[in-house]
Design brief:
The structure holds two protein chains of two kinds. By secondary structure, chain A is mainly α. Helices cover 68% and strands 5% of the residues of chain A. Chain A folds into two domains: 2-39 and 184-398, no CATH class; 45-165, abc type-2 transporter like domain (abc type-2 transporter like fold), CATH 3.40.1710.10. Chain A is built from 17 helices and four strands. Chain A has a four-stranded mixed β-sheet, with helices on one face. In chain A, strand 1, helix 4 and strand 2 form a beta-alpha-beta unit. By secondary structure, chain B is α/β, with parallel strands linked by helices. Among the domains of chain B are: 1-76 and 153-163 and 184-223, Rossmann fold, CATH 3.40.50; 224-304, Alpha-Beta Plaits (2-Layer Sandwich), CATH 3.30.70. Chain B has helices at 41-48, 71-74, 92-101, 107-120, 136-148, 166-181, 193-199, 217-222, 239-246, 272-281, 296-304, and strands spanning 3-12, 15-25, 30-34, 56-61, 64-65, 77-80, 154-158, 185-190, 202-207, 210-215, 226-233, 251-257, 260-266, 289-292. Chain B is elongated. Chain B starts with a strand and ends in a 15-residue tail after the last helix. The chains are: A mainly alpha, B alpha/beta. The A-B interface holds A 2-3, 6, 9-10, 13, 218, 221, 223-224, 226-235, 398, 400-401 and B 46, 49-53, 68-69, 71-72, 74-75, 77, 79, 81, 83-85, 87-90, 94, 98-99, 101-103, 146-147.
Chain lengths: 401, 319
């Protein structure tokens, strides 16, 4: 394993710049993961609207209405003074005024037209939410009045409160990754982890192209190749030893990245899909090593390495939805991206992270098949590039003179 | 027979780099390939080592056809390239150890061989230096150490003394002779005819990919008509006196340039005494006198009409 050992030794000589790059890329991934916490669920949170509730009469019905409105609104303590109320609504201290006119309860119970008077400020949208709550309360109570006319009012009101407590969870199901990321189980927020792992398609890929190309630049010198070709160690053995050494470097980077992720994102530990995300990351490590090994044979100078890294790692990351979610990319872009392994890596991450909320539960056979297909395609990419690199290396060895 | 090359043809497009080249190398020889730039020396070596594909011909090394997969033959071959081929990131010892390791797996034996190679090439004290800290001569020695550390039976040395200081050159040439004494067969290419004359037991002169002549240095010199060459430092000589000199039957050629009178004689003639009598008779004053036997450059000049070495720079031209 002479070539293998030397390759590791050359890697060691590059340890300074590589550690720096690794630190930067891990930092970027962690930043991306932490800023990726604004999931759809967190973007829309209920806020309590400040309102004034003026009741010109007092009755269980009015008290019940006040209780219901209080669930969604902050009732401000304003007296029934029109000037004060107008000023409050003008300066946006309250969004809405609900006035219960005198005789409202009697009119409502006798089936006459009973109207709640409302005043809305500039925030009409917020007011609608309050109006909706008022209408819900009154309409539900009206239903009880019609269908259970003998029930005492207090009992009806308690039933209405109980009924309105009920809520339904609404989920939107489609086959796109977008819906999957929107429907994450809030107890296991895989979206953050998915962002972290998605970023590995850039960070790990970039560090491997840099590291492996720098390493092979030493071995790919024409004179060194000539000398090696003259030796009794076959070209195939030399190439395999070189790949193994570079894959060992790749594994080291992969373990470091995932190890650090477990330190900085401890909640990932023990979660149900952690192993699948890490397995997917391992496939990334494999195909990124193969592609880097292939690219390294086309790299002629140290200056070209950073340019090639940017073009390949950044280019495929943009194209395949590492930085911009795949659901925001056009179908034509995604079609092109599907010819890159990065696309299948990102897709597999989405399938793992968002699978819990899809129509086809992750445990379903169809979903497992999709994930296995994504894994399989990545492996095929890795093997293909490795084979091409080995053939290219042999040709270059023979053309050394 | 260690190497048999038969009717080797190598073309680069329209250029015929090797033109039906044939030669044999016997065990224990130092076989010199001598020729000017582009004569095909390196191409011939690269073909023998299977570094280059050739268009026609046969090559056998150690009695077996040579191909890129002839690993058993390659195990017994050492190569010292024209250009220094070492790893910049490794020290002297690590470089030798690595290249030796491609041939010798046993770590203990390799350690011993590496130490021997360091001593053999005089690199003691530089073992832990990286190549960029070495002088040109030491780099060349490292290049040689990397090629011979595994004790090969057959060594190819392609211009190993280019751009080397006289001390290192002397050491390298001594080393080559020592390797040969230890039993190695050596193929040595150079444009330095003095080196080839000094160390090679048999020489082949190449030009335009063709064999011009081959044999021992004595045999090569015997092929030409030129005898000894006498040079006189003369400050004033008339055309009439030059004409008289040319008319001496044993004189083959007379030239006068930069106060130096060069008189070449025909083979077998010893005319120094006769020339001294001529100078006395003509009352022609002279300074220093040099007398030398024909060189391989004279052989090449007579056979091709061209100099083997570039006179303008005084340097040999590389092939």
């Amino acid at each position: 394993m002479t070539v293998y050992k030397l390759s590791l030794k050359v890697m060691k000589s590059n340890i300074g710049p590589m550690t720096l790059f690794l630190g930067i890329f891990i930092g970027i991934s962690l930043l991306a993961a932490s800023s990726g916490g604004n999931t759809a669920e967190q973007l829309f949170t209920r806020s309590r609207v400040p309102i004034a509730f003026i009741a010109e009469e007092s009755s269980p019905l009015v008290a019940g209405l006040r209780t219901e409105v209080e669930k969604i609104a902050e009732i401000q303590p304003y007296d029934d003074d029109s000037e004060t109320l107008q000023e409050a609504i003008f300066y946006n201290r309250i969004s809405h005024i609900i006035r219960i006119p005198s005789g409202f309860t009697r009119a409502f119970l006798s089936g006459e037209e009973a109207e709640v008077i409302t005043y809305t400020g500039q925030s009409e949208g917020r007011a609608m939410y309050v109006d909706l709550a008022v209408e819900n309360y009154l309409n539900t109570l009206r239903l009880y009045r019609i269908f259970t006319p003998d029930m005492p009012l207090e009992e009806m009101i308690s039933h209405v409160h109980r009924d309105l407590e009920q809520s339904s969870e609404i989920r939107i199901y489609t086959d796109t990754a977008a819906s999957e990321s929107l429907t994450v189980d809030p107890r296991e927020n895989y979206f953050n982890y998915m962002v972290f792992f998605n970023y590995q398609a850039y960070s790990l890929f970039a560090i491997l192209i840099l590291g492996i190309s720098s390493n092979l630049l030493v071995f790919n010198s024409r004179l060194i190749r000539m000398r090696q070709v003259c030796s009794p160690l076959s070209s195939r053995k030399q190439s395999l030893q070189l790949f193994l050494a570079n894959f060992a470097f790749a594994l080291f980077c992969w373990m470091l990245m995932n190890g650090i992720s477990l330190i900085f994102i401890p909640e990932l530990l023990g979660t149900s899909r952690m192993y699948l995300l890490i397995a997917n990351s391992f496939f990334l490590c494999f195909w990124a090593s193969s592609i880097s090994f292939f690219v390294a044979h086309l790299t002629k100078s140290r200056n070209a390495i950073s340019a090639i890294t940017n073009v390949i790692a950044l280019g495929t990351s943009f194209l395949a939805g590492v930085f911009v979610p795949q659901y925001l990319l056009g179908s034509a872009v995604l079609r092109v991206a599907s010819f890159t392994p990065t696309y299948w890596f990102v897709l597999a991450n989405s399938q793992i992270a968002g699978a819990g909320g899809t129509v086809r539960s992750f445990s379903s056979l169809a979903s497992q098949k999709d994930l296995l297909a994504s894994f399989g395609i990545q492996i095929i990419f890795g093997l293909t590039f490795l084979a091409i690199a080995l053939v290219l290396r042999k040709k270059q060895a023979l053309a050394a003179a | 027979m260690i190497i048999r090359v038969k009717e080797l043809v190598k073309r680069y497009g329209d250029l015929q780099a090797l033109d039906n080249l044939s030669f044999n190398v016997q065990k224990g020889e130092i076989f010199g390939l001598l020729g000017p730039n582009g004569s095909g020396k390196t191409t011939a070596i690269n073909c023998i080592l299977s570094l280059l594909k050739y268009d026609k011909g046969e090559i056998e090394v150690f009695g077996k056809p040579m191909s890129p997969d002839s690993y058993s033959s390659k195990r017994k071959i050492g190569v010292v390239m024209q250009e220094v081929a070492v790893f910049e990131v490794l020290t002297v010892r690590e470089n030798i150890d690595y290249f030796c390791g491609l041939y010798v797996q046993d770590a203990e034996r390799r350690k011993h061989l590496v130490q021997e190679a360091i001593e053999f090439t005089g690199l003691e004290g530089f073992e832990n230096f990286v190549p960029k800290k070495l002088s040109g001569g030491l780099l060349r020695r490292l290049n040689i150490a990397c090629g011979i550390a595994h004790k090969p039976e057959l060594i190819f040395m392609d211009e190993p003394t280019v751009a080397v200081d006289p001390q290192s050159r002397h050491r390298i040439l001594e080393g080559i002779c020592e390797l040969n004494r230890q039993g190695a067969t050596i193929i040595y290419t150079s444009h330095y005819m003095e080196e080839v004359e000094q160390i090679c037991s048999r020489i082949m002169i190449l030009d335009h990919g063709k064999e011009i002549a081959s044999g021992s240095k004595e045999a090569l010199k015997a092929m030409i008509d030129l005898g000894e060459k006498n040079s006189f430092e003369v400050y004033d000589i008339s055309d009439e006196q030059l004409m008289k000199l040319r008319n001496i039957p044993e004189v083959a050629e007379v030239s006068y340039r930069d106060n130096m009178l060069l008189i070449k004689s025909h083979k077998g003639s010893n005319i120094l005494e006769r020339l001294l009598s001529f100078f006395k008779q003509e009352s022609l004053p002279f300074g220093r006198i040099y007398s030398e036997q024909p060189t391989l450059n004279d052989v090449f000049l007579e056979m091709t009409g061209r100099e083997l070495r570039d006179k303008a720079t005084g340097q040999g031209v590389q092939t």
